[in-house]
Amino acid sequence: MRHVIIIGSGPAGYTAAIYAARANLEPLVVASSVEAGGELMNTTEVENFPGFPEGIQGPDLMAKMQAQAERFGAEVLYDDVVSLELDGPVKKVTLGSGKVHEAASIIYATGSAYRKLGLEGEERLSGRGVSWCATCDGFFFRERTIAVVGGGDSAMEEANFLTKFASKVYVIHRKDSLRASKIMQERAFANPKIEFIWNSEVADILGDEAVNGLRLRSTVDGSERDLEIEGLFVAIGNDPRTHLVHDKLELTSQGTIWVDGRSSRTSVEGVFAAGDVIDPTYRQAITAAGSGTVAALDVEHFLAGRGEAGEPAVADSPIEGLPDAAVV
Ligand code: NDP
């Protein structure tokens, strides 16, 4: 039986893994089969993660976090959790491969999933002009006219990025002001390829085989009009990924996993949660990483209470020029 299994491989999961591995807890990280690395895998330049004054690409940052966790002995599995048994002292994690892993504790750090508009055409035309990931699909829209829906940082980031490819990018927002941070807003306002369509929502996505337009509805007077575009990027936020624990862990009214105060302790003993899945407000890579730290320390404390905590880890490859030493 493992000391701890970490479910999720975003900043929260990998930071928890770094701390747990350095505490000799030999964590197993279930990283997911297709979404390993979490949301930052879909991001381009990350400019606000401390320690990278020139910025760093999202996937590079995640690769570094993974390497750091593995360096101290974390084991990473590219598989998906299909079910969980969380009650009692032995937690059971069943993977897509059919394998069942057991642990004394769990850190649940599954992050959040792209929110959908809930329109019929959205699913039907997904991959045929509808996308949730500019970095994945932007390339397909060279010299095309496209739209981004949303008014937050994600929408601004996507819109700016997409102007590298598209000839024109409409940003459709249901209000007359943005939720995005000032710097992201200013960048978008200054971009000559971006045009804002305010007080409008997408009522329908048009096209049979591929997207060829949108039906927009005014949020002021309900009037409708069609807009010709060939691609729609949906950037309206995320929802916490709680589907595996809906009936097992207490949730908050906002749909995140309930944790006890500033800790990571959930409503079930031995189960801890971290990152976007507990955070309806801040949802930054750095806050998720901090939250992963809290979870690993809580697990250490929990296991110590059961007489199971390990010794401090020693790095395999110490910082160049320094003698081998217990890393503190
Ligand atoms: P947000 O929740 O911040 O914004 C979502 C936007 O989508 C809002 O403008 C919201 O409108 C709109 N929206 C929500 N639902 C619908 C709907 N059904 N139809 C139409 N519009 C809708 O999500 P983000 O993904 O933008 O950002 C999440 C977090 O990640 C934030 O904390 C953000 O700061 C951070 N982030 C930071 C980045 C960076 O700093 N580089 C990059 C990307 C994200 P309304 O305003 O009316 O509610």
Automatic annotation (TrEMBL):
Binds 1 FAD per subunit. The keyword Oxidoreductase applies. It is an enzyme of class 1 (oxidoreductase). Keywords: Disulfide bond, FAD, Flavoprotein, NADP, Oxidoreductase, Redox-active center. Its cofactor is FAD. It catalyses: [thioredoxin]-dithiol + NADP(+) = [thioredoxin]-disulfide + NADPH + H(+). It comes from the Bacteria. The keyword Cell cycle does not apply. Its EC number is 1.8.1.9. One of its GO terms (molecular function) is thioredoxin-disulfide reductase (NADPH) activity. SUPFAM superfamilies: FAD/NAD(P)-binding domain (SSF51905). Residues 3-292 form the FAD/NAD(P)-binding domain. Belongs to the class-II pyridine nucleotide-disulfide oxidoreductase family. PANTHER family: THIOREDOXIN REDUCTASE 1-RELATED-RELATED. Homodimer. This is Thioredoxin reductase. It comes from Microbacterium mcarthurae.
